[in-house]
Write a structure and sequence with these properties.
Blueprint: H1 2-8, H2 31-34, H3 37-47, H4 71-74, H5 77-87, H6 107-110, H7 113-123
Amino acid sequence: KEWCCTNANRGCLSTTTTSPLFDCVAGFDNWQTGWSPEKKEWCCTNVNRGCSPLATTTTPLFDCVAGANNAAEGWSEAKKSWCCLSFDVGCVVPPPVHDCAAGFDNWHLGWSGAKKAWCCQHEGRGCVI
């Protein structure tokens, strides 16, 4: 979490982080009648979803809601990068440096010093007290 927070501004434990005002994926199949006017306006303005055909908005470079559940494999690198920076959607999280579950039963003897330090710092496992 610390690496992600420091390097990608993701997973940070802070009281200053904010969530989007509305979830523009939830209920999208029925947005015309199911969404409040406020949700329609916010989602249209911020993620280009729920826009009336008469709405005059700037079209974003990519639709960051379409295919978001398979972004890692289904989106181009350009779309992932743009949507991550613009809407915190489709961000690629690198795999952890160490698998802290592997060999945990014998971590005292089986883990390297580097793995002990990393797992202690990032997952609270393998800490020498």
